[in-house]
Amino acid sequence: MRLAMAMAAITVTADLPQAPASAGQRAATPAQAPMAGVPVYAATVVARLPHDKGAFTEGLLFCGGALYESTGKEGASDIRRVTLADGKVAARARIAPDLFGEGIACWKNQLLSVTWKTGIGFRWALPGLSRTGKPFRYAGEGWGMTTDGDRIILSDGTPTLRVMDPATFADRGRIAVTMNGRPLRQLNELEYVRGRILANVWMSGFIARIDPATGRVDGLIDVRPLLAEIGNPDPDAVANGIAYDAAHDRLYVTGKYWPTLFEIKLGAEVGRAR
């Protein structure tokens, strides 16, 4: 998200296959308990599409069948409608140069956007991205956003996701996120997918799958191979950007300064995070 700092502490242990036991050993060995830790899944690439390598991606989503993206950094923040096939910007709205743009969420015929440290948010009419209504205010930082169809869910880099009212942006609750019983920090870009919240864990190369009812992380998606494929040495070129096309059941991911938008699906379990 901001300037690069220490990576989020996620340790993955590979689950290596073991030689099958003999019949006598199987008879003498009690039933094994389920393996501990959170399952880690590969991100299987379905397709590669162009993405603006100059985009400091903070938010990514589909709304009304169109792909929208928000970018950050003071003087370079904007909200844009992007053509999926070629990655070109079809419409763009600039954010004031003194503001650092962050996440976006789709609500009815609008996009909501937040800023990093200034506590100012905006509403944008679709599809033209003209500003509508008055700016709204909120306490603390704004990082990523998504919606479950009823509420806005906001991240701020802490282990707590904030539940906001879409009409007023007033606080409606909290979701305390834990992995293996411990708080999981650095939650960044968010996307609601089939009853779960997907969250980029900043600087880690993993996407956390969160049960919104309990806050428990019940899976991780390993996007480190995609980061390696991009090969950008800039420490800020982290994975950030998750968009779910519900109409076609397609999941897309990208990152800051990435030239590629990846369509992915959940692959095989490759390890456990403990």
Can you give a write-up of this model?
The protein is mainly beta and 274 residues long. It contains two helices and 24 strands. It has helices at residues 23-28, 224-230, and strands at 12-13, 38-50, 57-63, 66-71, 78-82, 89-94, 101-107, 110-115, 120-125, 130-131, 136-137, 145-147, 152-154, 160-164, 171-176, 178-179, 182-183, 187-193, 196-201, 206-210, 217-222, 239-245, 250-255, 260-273. Strands 1, 2, 18, 19, 20, 21, 22, 23 and 24 form a nine-stranded mixed β-sheet that branches. Residues 1-7 and 15-33 have low confidence and may be disordered.
Beta strand %: over 45%
* Helical fraction: under 10%
Principal-axis shape equals globular
Counted by DSSP, the helix tally is 2
Ends apart, CA distance between termini: 25 Å
* Poorly predicted regions: 1-7, 15-33
Structural class: mainly beta
Helix and strand pattern: EHEEEEEEEEEEEEEEEEEEEEHEEE
On the 0-100 scale, what is the average pLDDT? 90
The main β sheet shows up as: 9 strands, mixed
- Rg (CA only): 19 Å
Number of strands: 24
Short overview:
It contains two helices and 24 strands. With 274 residues, it is mainly beta.
What descriptors fit this protein?
49% strand, globular, 274 residues, mainly beta, 2 helices
Write the layout of secondary structure elements.
Elements lengths: L11 E2 L9 H6 L9 E13 L6 E7 L2 E6 L6 E5 L6 E6 L6 E7 L2 E6 L4 E6 L4 E2 L4 E2 L7 E3 L4 E3 L5 E5 L6 E6 L1 E2 L2 E2 L3 E7 L2 E6 L4 E5 L6 E6 L1 H7 L8 E7 L4 E6 L4 E14 L1
Parallel strand pairs: 2-21
Antiparallel strand pairs: 1-24, 2-24, 3-4, 4-5, 5-6, 7-8, 8-9, 9-10, 9-11, 12-13, 13-14, 14-15, 16-17, 18-19, 19-20, 20-21, 22-23, 23-24
